[in-house]
Design the sequence.
């Protein structure tokens, strides 16, 4: 059960990509919900997982740690992790942590889907 | 501290999981009148949240009856936030500098980003301890010096 402050949903992006919409707070409490969403998004041998952060309200260092854990799982499955909709502040956090070098970052979902094929 | 510093707000929070959000909100409210650039304010908020999380968890061990004390000060060119917990008797281990490659290779825990974020988001971080208390002071210039915002 995800915390009340987090809502995750999975939908199809394109033939090779599933999108995880993230709404609310990504903290340590998000772990099981995020990993469950990843499992759901990975069904049918999908190659790309796109995290849509447009409705992200707050992410702390534990949330960053969860993204690293997710990235490890994605790499093991030889998938690719993408992100879109990050605010300027969280884009900067991704740069500081160098997550932007391991996750493909795009401003819009359409930009990401055009690349994630 | 320099006499140019004046206190904007002092408050305390019970050491309960998630209260770093309250700290962030109250500090943002305290500095509202200063009109910090939006990007600077976001940096301060995140640094305050991370330092408060450390105080709640590592300093006060989530004992709800042990408060975290937060003091917000301003000078003509900077903002300071002092976050004090009751973990002064503990030795603070030197934090490992997080390295993404090492984390992805399983050589470091995926976690451990908090102190790194704090140090990189504010202009100065000072740590003081006595036998009872542990205080982290975050200092942020009110305007960007080098990069412009």
Sequence:
């Amino acid at each position: 059960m995800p915390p009340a402050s987090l809502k995750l949903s999975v939908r199809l992006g394109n033939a090779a990509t599933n999108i995880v919409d993230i709404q609310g707070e990504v903290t340590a409490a998000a772990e099981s919900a995020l990993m469950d969403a990843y499992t759901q998004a990975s069904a049918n041998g999908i190659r790309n997982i796109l995290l849509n952060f447009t409705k992200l309200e707050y992410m702390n260092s534990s949330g960053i740690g969860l993204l690293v854990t997710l990235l490890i799982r994605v790499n093991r499955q030889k998938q690719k992790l993408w992100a879109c909709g990050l605010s300027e502040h969280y884009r900067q956090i991704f740069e500081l942590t160098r997550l932007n070098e391991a996750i493909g970052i795009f401003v819009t979902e359409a930009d990401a889907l055009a690349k994630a094929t | 501290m320099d006499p140019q510093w004046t206190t904007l707000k002092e408050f305390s929070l019970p050491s309960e999981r998630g209260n770093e959000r309250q700290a962030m909100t109250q500090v943002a409210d305290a500095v509202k009148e200063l009109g910090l650039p939006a990007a600077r304010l976001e940096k301060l908020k995140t640094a305050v949240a991370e330092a408060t999380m450390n105080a709640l968890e590592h300093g006060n061990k989530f004992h709800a009856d042990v408060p975290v004390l937060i003091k917000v000060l301003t000078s003509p060119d900077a903002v300071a936030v002092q976050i004090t917990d009751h973990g002064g008797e503990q030795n603070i281990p030197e934090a490992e500098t997080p390295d993404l490659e090492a984390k992805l290779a399983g050589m470091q825990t995926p976690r451990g980003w908090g102190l790194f974020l704090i140090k990189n988001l504010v202009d100065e971080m000072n740590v003081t301890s006595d036998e009872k208390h542990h205080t982290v002071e975050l200092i942020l210039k009110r305007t960007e010096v080098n990069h412009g915002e």
